[in-house]
Amino acid sequence: MSDDTKNQHTTLNVTKAAVSVAGTVAKSTPLSAVGVALDVADVGLSVYDDRKNSTTRNTVTTISATTAGFGGGVAGGLVGATAGTAICPGIGTIVGGIVGGVIGGVGARFGAKKAINKVGDDLEYDIEILVCSKCGEQFECHVYKTGRAKSLCEDCR
Ligand SMILES: [Zn+2]
């Protein structure tokens, strides 16, 4: 085996090992455990809000955004690992993978939540037209946020 071929093999093996380590680290680190715990708490809070307001929009939005966040995290991780490998195979792959995963996950989740909320508004999902009990004007009540109990328009609140 020539030295060149040997070096290529070594680089390839280091990259493979790094990718598998990055995968294991991402699955088992407290950081990702905290992320999952926060997601579960977030969904739990949304369910609570929806039960309180007799709506479903909070839960649907949060679960959709969380799913998009996972997808974005995986995609970001792959992009980061590839970029990191180009800079420095091994450590670069691991660091790039983790950084890319976090940025991708947060970015996708944030973007998804905004997009889903926009669609929800367009569909008037859990938005009702109520009559203000103080000034008698009709107004859009975001039931999924405030519940139906607050029958005052924005001006009278
Ligand atoms: Zn009013």
Automatic annotation (TrEMBL):
This is Glycine zipper domain-containing protein.
